[in-house]
């Protein structure tokens, strides 16, 4: 009997354990932190052995295969020991893909991947296909393969999940964009992070498809230097493409092998240029999967987006409060500030991942009247924007941040939570941060 060791008992770890058990592995789950009561209960129900607050090496180094949570860096000593012993260390995505014959759509990118994943799933499920959504979102891919396998999967994939693949190959890969993010995990080398994102196409062949933003110079440069085997379907707001998606006089045009779909951008439920691109990517996938054009158009007209991503919360005294807690990097915040049409009080800060704030200067100069810092250490933000904005205030809780914003913001202005940073210093995760923001706004 093969031994599967799972490191990390979160959603992906527990899902992998369930699938491993079902497929006849001897399974052991080890978490260096505390395991939540919910996941303990699941592990007990499946009679899976587990430990918490430690990694017992004797029970780990005898594995045939190890699935590690995306949160554990490769630099950790235990992972180095496993690598030294030649024991495969893989991600949940790699493990689960071996046990399904489904057609997989894999979506990655620094920004836009959650919206594009949810939008693609919305289009494909309304098109009548048997489709599940997973990866970085919702129930784990492994758990779904174990308990309710589907004919199609739309998976949101992070670079950390892609780092742990060996043979995984989505039939359709989507790359929304690449901007510097998570550089703390990639030796502060942008090229390492870029290569990591491109692992999504590494095992594709001539019968597979790669959908990507051809306006993104990082992507196009990488493609010229590292040609890939799959069929290329670019999308662009700037130039006409032969096969793929482009903009023509405020109409989205998608052409695949002479099959054409047209839709006016004004009919999209999601506003902003970045969402035109997300719509192009999702609609291109749907065209490939032969979803009816009327269905694609209807779905793009009625999809209203993702919680914590430019989410309008409330209007109070004619001030619009916007929750963009999902903006955990500078580029995401760039889109958020770009979407603000009037003067804005900006709540920013958290765990800095090696951010370079210079690309925000023009937008901050133009739109931001005050900055409210919300992090344990705000020195980098204060240094970065001290010359752009007169009013910079430090806070240590969401309630304080929102109350101060309420005092500063005037009629027809915005209060925008778009942190550009990770959330782990003051919050459990970006969802917790966004929910606290919404609660604080509702209490005003």
TrEMBL record:
GO MF term set: ligase activity
Domain Mur ligase central: 107-285
Subcellular location: Cytoplasm
Protein name: UDP-N-acetylmuramoylalanine--D-glutamate ligase
Entry binding sites for ATP: 109-115
NCBIfam families: murD (TIGR01087)
All copies of domain Mur ligase C-terminal, residue ranges: 308-421
Top class in the EC scheme: ligase
Pfam family, one: Mur_ligase_M
Record key words, sorted: ATP-binding, Cell cycle, Cell division, Cell shape, Cell wall biogenesis/degradation, Cytoplasm, Ligase, Nucleotide-binding, Peptidoglycan synthesis
InterPro entries noted in UniProt: Mur-like_cat_sf (IPR036565), Mur_ligase_C (IPR004101), Mur_ligase_C_dom_sf (IPR036615), Mur_ligase_cen (IPR013221), MurD (IPR005762)
PANTHER family for this protein: UDP-N-ACETYLMURAMOYLALANINE--D-GLUTAMATE LIGASE
């Amino acid at each position: 009997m093969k031994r599967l060791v799972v490191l990390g008992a979160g959603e992906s770890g527990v899902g992998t354990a369930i699938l491993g058990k079902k497929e006849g592995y001897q399974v052991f789950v080890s978490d260096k932190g505390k395991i939540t009561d919910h996941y303990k209960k699941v592990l007990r129900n499946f009679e899976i052995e587990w430990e918490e607050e430690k990694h017992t090496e004797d029970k780990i180094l005898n594995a045939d295969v190890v699935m590690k949570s995306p949160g554990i860096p490769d630099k950790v000593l235990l992972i180095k020991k496993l690598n030294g012993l030649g024991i495969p260390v893989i991600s949940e995505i790699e493990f689960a893909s071996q046990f399904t014959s489904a057609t997989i759509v894999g979506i990655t990118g620094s920004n836009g991947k959650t919206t594009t994943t949810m939008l693609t799933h919305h289009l494909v499920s309304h098109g009548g296909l048997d489709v599940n959504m997973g990866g970085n979102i919702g129930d784990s891919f492994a758990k779904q393969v174990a308990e309710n396998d589907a004919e199609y999967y739309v998976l949101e994939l992070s670079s950390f999940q892609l780092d742990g693949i060996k043979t995984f190959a989505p039939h359709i890969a989507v790359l929304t964009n690449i901007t510097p993010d998570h550089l703390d995990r990639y030796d502060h080398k942008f090229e390492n992070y870029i290569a990591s994102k491109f692992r999504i196409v590494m095992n594709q062949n001539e019968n597979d498809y790669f959908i990507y933003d051809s306006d993104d110079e990082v992507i196009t440069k990488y493609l010229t230097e590292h040609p890939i085997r799959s069929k290329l379907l670019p999308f662009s707001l700037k130039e006409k493409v032969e096969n793929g998606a482009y903009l023509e006089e405020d109409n989205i045009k998608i052409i695949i092998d002479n099959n054409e779909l047209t839709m006016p951008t004004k009919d999209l439920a999601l506003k902003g240029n970045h969402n035109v691109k997300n719509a192009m990517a999702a609609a291109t996938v749907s065209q490939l999967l032969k979803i009816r054009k009327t269905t694609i158009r209807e779905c793009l007209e009625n999809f209203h987006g993702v919680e914590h991503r430019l989410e309008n919360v409330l209007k109070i005294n004619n001030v619009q409060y916007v929750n963009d807690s999902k903006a955990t990097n500078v580029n995401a915040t760039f889109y958020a500030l770009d979407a603000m049409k009037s003067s804005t009080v900006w709540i920013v800060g958290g765990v800095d991942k090696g951010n370079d704030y210079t690309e925000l200067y023009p937008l901050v100069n133009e739109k931001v009247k005050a900055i409210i810092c919300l992090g344990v250490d705000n020195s980098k933000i204060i240094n970065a924007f001290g010359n752009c904005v007169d009013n910079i205030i430090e806070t240590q809780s969401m309630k304080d941040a929102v109350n101060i914003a309420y005092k500063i913001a005037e009629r027809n202005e915005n209060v925008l939570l778009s942190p550009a940073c990770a959330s782990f210093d003051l919050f459990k995760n970006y969802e917790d941060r966004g929910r606290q923001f919404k609660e604080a706004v509702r209490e005003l």
